[in-house]
Amino acid sequence: MMKRRELREQVFRLLFRVSFHTEEDMKEQMLLWAEDLPAEDTQEAFKEKDIDYITTRCGKVLEKVAQIDPIINENTEGWNTERMGKVELSVLRLAVYEILFDEDIPASVAINEAVEIAKKYGQESSGAFVNAILGKVAKSDESKS
């Protein structure tokens, strides 16, 4: 079984891939993504359980995009989801999902992991950009509790 960090990164990678395609292409994109995974003979081989978790998690995030994107937009200044880079948007969607809809993941963990993914896959300023938005999202979520 993969570590949670690795699973989260794969969910991000699948969300990123999906952001370039229509909903009708989703099944095909998930199959292509699964084909790109390391082969069974490598140490990083993906187990069926991991693939199920990743694809289910991605689906859950995508189901909530209509709720997540307005929240992202409310917490940005001079930006919106249509102008953002796809790396940042994919990271933000995953992290906002975790902050608002997954009670098993503390907001601080979701933010930290999102910043790390943004730094790895995004531009130089992506980590700070993601951190600032998620900090606002988490703060507004706390005030509602």
Structural class: mainly alpha
- The CATH homologous superfamily is termed NusB-like
What letter string, H or E per element, gives the SSE order? HHHHHHH
- Helices, by number, come to 7
Task: Describe the structure in your own words.
Helix 5 packs parallel to helix 7 and helix 6 (107-121) runs antiparallel to helix 7. The chain has helices at residues 4-18, 26-35, 48-63, 65-74, 86-101, 107-121, 126-144. The chain contains seven helices and no strands. The N and C termini lie far apart (34 Å). By secondary structure, the chain is mainly alpha-helical. It has a single domain, classed as N-utilizing Substance Protein B Homolog, Chain A (Orthogonal Bundle), CATH 1.10.940. The chain is globular, with a radius of gyration of 15 Å. The model has no long low-confidence stretch (mean pLDDT 86). The relative contact order is 0.13.
Supply database-style keywords.
70% helix; N-utilizing Substance Protein B Homolog, Chain A; 145 residues; single chain; mainly alpha; 7 helices
Layout of strands and helices, then pairs:
Blueprint: H1 4-18, H2 26-35, H3 48-63, H4 65-74, H5 86-101, H6 107-121, H7 126-144
Helix pairs in contact: 1-3, 1-5, 4-5, 5-6, 5-7, 6-7
In short:
The chain is 70% helix and 0% strand. With 145 residues, the protein is mainly α. 29% of the residues are buried.
